[in-house]
Amino acid sequence: MCTQSYSYVYTNWYGESVIKDWKSMQVTDVSGTHHVPVQRVRRDAFWESLDLPDGVPFGMLLYRFYDACGEPLYIGKSTAPFGRLEGHRKQAEWWGLVEFIAMSMYPSHGLLLRAELAAIRSEQPRFNKAGLRGKKRVELHLHGSADDAADVLLDEADPEFLADLVRILSTPDRALLAVAPPCPGFC
Questions:
Q1: Residue from 102, 53, 52 nearest 76 by CA
Q2: Over the stretch 122-176, which tens digit does the pLDDT of each residue have?
């Protein structure tokens, strides 16, 4: 039995989770990103049940499948969405639980990748295996730009690991402190 109200949770291209009431959703265009309202799907007539807006490019698609209670089942991306979604329909173990789909189209592959990772980590869909945690290892260039290193960590590391790292590096006994050079004999 579902106890929650239906709401649409999506992650915008800044990686922020945004919650909207499903009934009030419209197709929106934010910096080239199109968000299609959550729709009920018929599993036996998937394509026929979708209300796809005209003129919206479906090349860089982020999709979310939800169960009857609005809980996320699976979040994925595709640059060939019709084949990918058809593959889920025919082969996914969770397909029998699907009741709703939400779709967002992104203007670039980079934004699509970042949005998928942020959505999976923030929404924790039941059947996603990849992306729930960050990579075990990433390559950081320690003599390069600190901004570049931060971008790698933000894109690839587990958020809990990052929070712990910030906490550790912020403690006085671990913080980098400027130390005056030793005073020569004429001080």
A1: 102
A2: 888 999 987 555 566 777 777 888 888 887 777 777 777 777 788 887 777 766 6
The 3-state DSSP class for residue 15 equals: coil
**Whole-number Å distance between alpha carbons of 35 and 29:** 7
Name which of 39, 84, 90, 47 is nearest 65 in CA terms.
Answer: 39
Sign of the CA dihedral running 124, 129, 130, 134:
positive
CA distance 121 to 144: 28
* Stated pTM of the model: 0.61
Location of structure tokens 């239906």: 6
Q: Which two tokens stand for residue 70?
A: 């609005």
Q: Residue written as tokens 């909207």?
A: 20
